[in-house]
Amino acid sequence: MNDLHILHNQKIRVLLSEQDLRNPGTRQRAERISVYAVAVGQNLELSVDRLVGLRIRSSLGQIDPSKWSDLVSSEVNATEQTIIELCTQFVEMRFDESLSPQQAEEKCLKWLKNEAALLYEGGIVEAFVRVQRIIQPIGT
């Protein structure tokens, strides 16, 4: 990791901490989405620059882009946007506080098996399933 990436990560942490003060839980949710998104991107062999952009966008998606747009050098492409959407959907379902952990897990498994491939490009869903088994397995 180069110095620029370190600075980006520091700014991400500061922005997430500020947002978390206003809306508790934001940082934890953003970090979960980011971990999944970057892992999926890496599994799909995206370039380092794309992975860094994915990290930034997936972490800070709920924060006003004018506060972080200087961190990214390129526009988000369709693959990256799909990765972020898929990971966000999964995290929202998996950590739904209105459900018991077992209910949330069952809901995620059903969604991954039956709906995700219809909503998102199949290769991205397959990459997600591969990394999800490592990050936080469900249905095991």
Short description:
This protein is mainly α and 140 residues long. The protein has helices spanning 3-22, 26-43, 48-60, 78-94, 101-114, 116-119, 122-135.
Explain this structure.
Helices cover 71% and strands 0% of the residues. With 140 residues, the chain is mainly α. Helix 1 (3-22) packs parallel to helix 3 and helix 2 (26-43) runs antiparallel to helix 3. It is globular.
Secondary structure layout plus pairing:
Blueprint: H1 3-22, H2 26-43, H3 48-60, H4 78-94, H5 101-114, H6 116-119, H7 122-135
Structural features:
single chain, 140 residues, mainly alpha, 71% helix
Mean pLDDT: 88
- Biggest sheet statistics: none
Q: How many E strands?
A: 0
Oligomer category:
single chain
Helix content: over 70%
Order of helices and strands: HHHHHHH
Head-to-tail CA distance between termini? 34 Å
What percentage of amino acids are in beta strands?
Answer: under 5%
Rg computed from alpha carbons, rounded to a whole number of angstroms: 15 Å
Uncertain residue segments: none
Counting DSSP H or I runs of 4 or more residues, the number of helices is 7
Give me the secondary-structure category.
mainly alpha
Tell the overall outline: globular
